[in-house]
């Protein structure tokens, strides 16, 4: 077991997947990028519900209170592939990107305490947008907007069982990352182009608290109620802003000429309190169906470094989700298919981003399957998500996305007492 633990630490230290470009959405242009779902593949496959769910051998990221129910040491690693079709009403383009979703490890301590630590993306940036200015049929100027980067979070969660029905939990996370935004302007009959560039380094601490109530309605049916509060937090944004003229070499490498602006900046991003409420019914290791609702006030920026587009504002955000799972026979010996877990769900989200006085909304449906590994509790999870973000209206674009996720969950027992013959 020590070898497994050391191996996991090596992965955490050496892996480079979180530094690669992992987004291709034009909507990641705004703010600090597109917010990543801080949930497991299993939760996302159920429409992103998870605050009122707990398991003895599966991790849930939504509610730290669920960790108190964990009875097996659990390792989890996930990857994803995002595929987009973008339509502005005139043209349509497709793109895709693959990345690591998360790495995490949950450890039960006794029968009342559970711990979780891991690493996952927090926000992602990856876009390339071209704006043309014309006089008649002639293009007189071009603006090319590009950006990449994002933020990640290292998190540590703690769950405690107060009694047979009630769990509480806390989670703290350190958020860090880099974002590079570029604007290249070219004009007809002008030899030199102009580049405006910002390099941002972001960091901060976030925290959340959760509660989970689980009671039996009858011999088979369980009622689960959960709530999570993500506390107010601030991210520090430090970096440099550049403005310079340039020429392109024959290899396409940008060669700066005269620097007009080269100055440092410092700002703050304020994330207000977020509340998530959830309820569900189910039969242990058989089926579960739940609903989840979250709401939050508008994010705030202290300056315009990351919000220089005057057509953009931020408002309240909310999400409502429905979903669940079904396992025909959890402990079947004769049939592998009956031990498989089938998941499905849907969610509707008002992102809080407002462009040209139009709210950007996101609707998605999801489904997935859990494949047991041999006769063990360990499993491979496949998840699919299909959805639509934005609309063709008021100079917005519509995105149709298909996301595929794959996770591996391994279970083992630690601190198990040896029995003497």
> Biggest β-sheet, characterized?
14 strands, antiparallel, barrel
- Quickly give the CATH architecture: Beta Barrel
Mean pLDDT: 88
Radius of gyration: 24 Å
What is the H-and-E element order? HEHEEEEEEEEEEEEEEEEEE
**Shape estimate:** elongated
CATH class: Mainly Beta
Based on secondary structure, the structural category is: mainly beta
| Helical residues, percent | under 10%
Poorly predicted regions are 1-17
Number of helices: 2
User: Strand sequence of the main sheet, in spatial order?
Assistant: 2-3-4-5-6-7-8-11-12-15-16-17-18-19
Supply the CATH superfamily name.
Answer: Outer membrane protein transport protein (OMPP1/FadL/TodX)
Beta-strand content estimate: over 45%
Q: Any idea of the CATH topology? A: Porin
What does this protein look like?
A 14-stranded antiparallel barrel has the order 2-3-4-5-6-7-8-11-12-15-16-17-18-19. The longest helix has 13 residues, at 2-14. It is built from two helices and 19 strands. It has one domain: Beta Barrel (Porin). It has helices at residues 2-14, 41-45, and strands at 34-35, 73-87, 92-109, 113-135, 138-161, 166-187, 193-216, 222-230, 233-248, 254-271, 274-283, 287-296, 300-301, 312-314, 317-326, 341-355, 358-372, 379-390, 398-412. It is mainly beta and 421 residues long.
